[in-house]
Amino acid sequence: MILITRLTSNLLEQLFIRIDRAIDYKNEFKFEHSPEIVKEQLSKYIIPLLSPTKLDSEVLLFHLNYRETGAINITLKDALKNVDWLVDFTGYPIGRMDFVLIEPNYSFGICVERWEYQDTFISWGLFK
């Protein structure tokens, strides 16, 4: 179990290094902390534009207790079935966790980073 959680933590660290650098097909915007904005972005702008092949892809979902259990491996389609539950489950609404849903090799993903005065919604590789 320690190995799994260490690997998961390393994946998350590598993610933040990568998204701080230039990534192809990266979109980002800043906003005041709001779970409703994240849910709206996922429901109205991300999900409707995804190709069926992307929806069948395996992704990692980081959540409030990932340090104890590791990230959850799930298909993107299953992860996005209930956006309200998904966002709440991650711990993002209570300000205890960033929202992170990534393809294990970082080829695409969604990350909402929490900051002191504003959050940043970042997505990449989803529509190429």
Count of all domains = 1
Structural class: alpha+beta
Give the strand order of the largest sheet, numbering strands 1, 2, ... along the chain.
1-6-5-4-2-3
**SS field, number of helical segments:** 6
How can the largest sheet be summarized? 6 strands, antiparallel
Q: Helicity, in percent?
A: 25-40%
Please tell me what the overall shape is. globular
From N to C, what is the helix and strand string? HEHHEHEHHEEE
Terminal-residue CA separation: 35 Å
- Strand tally is 6
Task: Tell me about this structure.
The N and C termini lie far apart (35 Å). This protein has one domain (2-124). A hairpin with a 6-residue loop joins strand 4 (99-102) and strand 5. With 128 residues, the chain is an alpha+beta fold. 40% of the residues lie in helices and 23% in strands. The model has no long low-confidence stretch (mean pLDDT 89). It has helices at residues 2-20, 35-46, 52-55, 66-69, 76-79, 83-90, and strands spanning 26-31, 58-61, 72-75, 99-102, 109-113, 119-124. InterPro entries: YxiF.
What's the layout of helices and strands?
Elements: H1 2-20, E1 26-31, H2 35-46, H3 52-55, E2 58-61, H4 66-69, E3 72-75, H5 76-79, H6 83-90, E4 99-102, E5 109-113, E6 119-124
Antiparallel strand pairs: 1-6, 2-3, 2-4, 4-5, 5-6
Helix pairs in contact: 2-6
Keywords:
alpha+beta, 6 helices
